[in-house]
Amino acid sequence: MSLLFDILSSVGMWEAVLRIATPLIFGTLGVLLCERVGVLNLGIEGIMTFGAMVGWLTVYSGGNLWLGLLAAAAGGALFGLLHGVLTALLGLSQHVTGLGITLFASSFSYFVFRLAVPTASSPPTVEPFRAYPVPVLSEIPFLGPVLFNQTAPTYLALGLVAVLAYVLYRTPLGLAIRMTGENPHAVDAQGIDPIRLRIGTIMAGSALMGVGGAFLTLAAFNSFFPTMVQGRGWICVALVVFALWQPGRALLGALLFAFFDAFQLRLQTVVDGVPYQLFLMLPYVLSIVALIVMARRARVPQALMQPYRRGER
Amino acid sequence: MRFERREHPSTTLNLLAPLGAVLAALIVAGLLIAIAGANVFEAYGLILKGAFGSRLGFSETLTRATPLILTGLAAAVAFRARLWNIGAEGQFYVGALAVAAFGMIPAVAGLPAPLAIVLCLGVGAVAGMILLLLPLGLRLKFGVDEVVTSLLLNFIAVLFVSMMIEGAMKDPLAFGWPQSVPVPDNAVLPKLMARTRLHAGLLIALAMAVAVWWLQARTVFGMRARAAGLSPRAAAFAGVPLGRTLVAVACLSGGLAGLAGAIEVMGVKGYVTTDLSPSYGYSGIVIAMLANLNPIGVIGAALFSAVMFVGADSMSRALGIPSYIADVTVALSLLTMLVALFLTQYRISR
Amino acid sequence: MTRVLELEHITKRFGTVTANEDVSLHLEQGEIVALLGENGAGKTTLMSILFGHYTADVGTVRVNGAELPPGKSRAAIRAGVGMVHQHFALAPNLSVLENVMTGTEPLWKLRSDRAAGRAKLLELSQRFGLAVDPEARIADLSVGECQRVEILKALYNDAEVLILDEPTAVLTAQEAESLFATLREMAAKGLSLIFISHKLHEVMSASDRVVVLRAGKVVAERATKATSKEELAELMVGRAVKRPERPPARPGAVLLEAVDVTLGGKGGASLLGISFKLHAGETLGIIGVSGNGQTTLAGLVSGLYPPDGGALLVKGQTPARHDVPHAIAAGIGRIPEDRNVEGTIGDMSTWENAVLERIWSPEFSSRGVVKRAASKAATEAILRDYDVRGATVDGRIRLLSGGNMQKLILGRVLTAGPDILVAAQPSRGLDEGAIAGVHERLLDARGRGAGVLLISEDLDEVIALSDRIRAIVGGRLSPAIPAERANAQLLGLMMAGDWSAAEQIEAEAPPHEI
Hints:
- The structure holds 3 protein chains of 3 kinds.
- A two-stranded antiparallel ribbon of chain A has the order 1-2.
- By secondary structure, chain A is mainly alpha-helical.
- Chain A is built from 13 helices and 2 strands.
- The termini of chain A are far apart.
- Chain B is mostly helical.
- Chain B has a two-stranded antiparallel ribbon.
- In chain B, helix 1 (11-35) packs antiparallel against helix 14 (324-345).
- In chain C, strands 13, 15, 18, 19, 20, 21 and 22 form a 7-stranded mixed beta sheet that branches. In chain C, strands 6-7-8-3-9-10 form a 6-stranded mixed beta sheet, sandwiched between helices.
- The chains are: A mainly alpha, B mainly alpha, C alpha/beta.
- At the A-B interface, helix 5, helix 11 and helix 13 of A face helix 7, helix 12 and helix 14 of B.
- Chain A: It is found in: Cell membrane.
- Chain A: It is a multi-pass membrane protein.
- Chain A: It holds the Pfam family BPD_transp_2.
- Chain A: One of its GO terms (molecular function) is transmembrane transporter activity.
- Chain A: This is ABC transporter permease.
């Protein structure tokens, strides 16, 4: 019992929750945006990988960290454009297109990485984002170091939740996005091109996925290695269902998830006799459980996965 | 610009689609090779040479194609019925692991070889089935989309394999390496060519392709599965039992992926590790799509992928182009195939 | 009077098909014009050109005298023309206000002015008597309320000309009446309206002027007062189509009997205790407004769902299993409500569509292997005997017209020689010629001794084909009246749930006929 208490009362544990949650927040918001406009983006796993690689490569070749994030966002948006053209314009299967983009983006990332670093036994590192203690606020006992001693991208992720919620629920653009995810015909009838809106939104969502990937190489770790995304993208897809497509709940889901992840990491080191793989399975098992719990309650965007072609109903 | 549905999709176009798709993927990959600073024709020449140029290379290509045919079939049968089985990777691993576990039963080592082989193959297939029935059950029972669950199960399956080969199934003679105890000798698949890795699994894979084709094209089950995939409501109205049909499709699909794992461990490696599959499961998706879900086409598509993978290895050594170019080309061909299929269905007009 | 809308000499071709040929149409302020025509007459294409979804090959569109630029989807809306679609363009998960406001503000505005939007919506809703709650979720509204939202959406865009596409297709009789009252009021307040329809009685009752479109051309224009249903019918169809006459019935034994059946609706209304008997050699018509349990009833008899309570007896027996193969094996032939969604699979071949529902029979398979040659031969026979045009045995069925698809469905059902025939909305969406053909087949089946359960929303069809008629209202069946006693008024009462007259008529009938 005291063991549990030790873990749960340690600042390090809670600090880690926010850190672990950050890429999930970016990724989940990205998936959420795409699904709100009616497109399932299974490209996320690959796009995060590409973001991680491009972010790292930019900084490794002399760019600053923010340029790295920007490059990751741009790279993500580019794959988003590809996804958008294939699914929104041509109306191809969103499942297969997304998987195709994941396979392509990951293998392309590894290819470019190997090209940049042909022979290195241990992956070269960059100087990552350092924690930025917010003046005054970080002095608050316990809460201070947990909430206000994070890296800049973490603050960015938290801010984005609010921005995205505002855009979705308070602006004409957000309304048009939600409407497109529900009924693209209605949007078209009102003179907004749902296909363009879909492509644009997928690009924005994919940019967020790219940034989420870059967080891994530029803040959480300091180098790139293949398969480093480890299914985080798929977890984000599950989290969006858990979040019932609402940004606030997406944050909650990511935090909850990160909590379990941080907790199992610490539990692993103190519990004997249980294979560590069981702990590592936890995030994936939890994602499946989250899907089961929410499946019946979910108010799925009605036009999700429905291609829109003018004149076809 | 708008797209009009072609009223009569032509058969010629349908046959040309995969060729066009592969060509387009090769051109884009060629650009990457050029950017990387190598001569494109030399690179492709080396890939072909690596894959076909020697007895060893050729046998490697066929060895590589064997599991790819099976995972490709697994994806093709599932997708036809609109069952999104993205979990072939995990099913492959549990199939392989199940064979190794089955081999640990003392009595198995005493069986005559043909019986041991058949039993082991069966065990692997059943393990794959079970892993796919799980997400299908969640879909039928709770309405959970099987795409994400079958994907997540891949990670769980590999972690489970890792746990077993470092724990209960660890080979005590492997100098501490995490690998399973070997498959008993009587369950090892016979070689097809001496001094190569090519084994009888290839024949099984080819037979499966023909069997799946026959099932789909000639049987009531095949017709019902296709109907259920194309239009669940119309299929239900025509009396197709949707749930049962999907379960049968899942057994077939998961079984084929599990069989792929079983054959790989019984034919090539002899024991299970966590790098048994260079993502055979995911490549299966590409192969199925390239084949336009046609089981016979899967053979060709699997060969193409195998050529790329085997050839790129030797090309990479010669030219210093990362061998990931093979993965890039194969993944690209999935995307170009999607576009090619679109163009067989629609024409672009203004 | 001022001309608010003018379509002049519109011609539009798709490849070799001419959808509109030299169509001219105008609308005066404060007027209600009905655009009458059968499916495929070119009504939809014409409206798509007006709204810029298609560009006309020849011709111009003027709103208030100003020519609209062709192919600009926003132009008509900006000029004050609003469209109320037959399939509502609404988002079920969003609120009324959100649905109405979508696309009405500049997309990049930083804050949506919901208060102003709400005020404008309430003002419009008051002015035209279209009551709605701005915060209600669309999914919680009735069909009639949804249509109100659609109209408000157009008005919110400052529309002065409203186009309504088949506005009553999904409404109950009462809702349709109140809709037309609203339209009258809107016209009186200066709006101008066009409604598209193929229903003669509503054209006669609600319009000032009728424009008849046939095969892409305007064939006639009449002041409503100066024409008749009969004249319009002939103009619309182009020839006098005679539907077949119903010979007297020779009812036999009870083939199908429902005893107090309850069944929870599967995506439709539930059945709350229905009982009926269907005799050999007769047609029992079930009339009703869409959404009162027809789909569930058809599904029940078709073998899709077993009853939750009560019993469904086929030839006096409870079927061993209540599923589709057993239903078909017991002699039930099924004509589905929706040919495209339930009846056929567009991407499968004609022969597969023809045999799929009986693929288990020894005729078409043995030991799980499809008898392809026999299946194709049987399909060939259906195509020939039922005059299915444009189909090949191996071709995809998607390419067939509605009428030919229905012929194929009739063929596959009737060649099995069913004793009981369930026909749900058998002539929905078909043109007059095809309807006559379908009716003939249904009467033939009855003539050879089958019991026909006809579920339809079309009064004329039910009266013409049925020997006895029941109304379905809220999942319950009214008493049965003989067709001879049926008229529009009585059926209207029955469909509205007033069954006193019907009860009396049923009481007078000899007991064996019930």
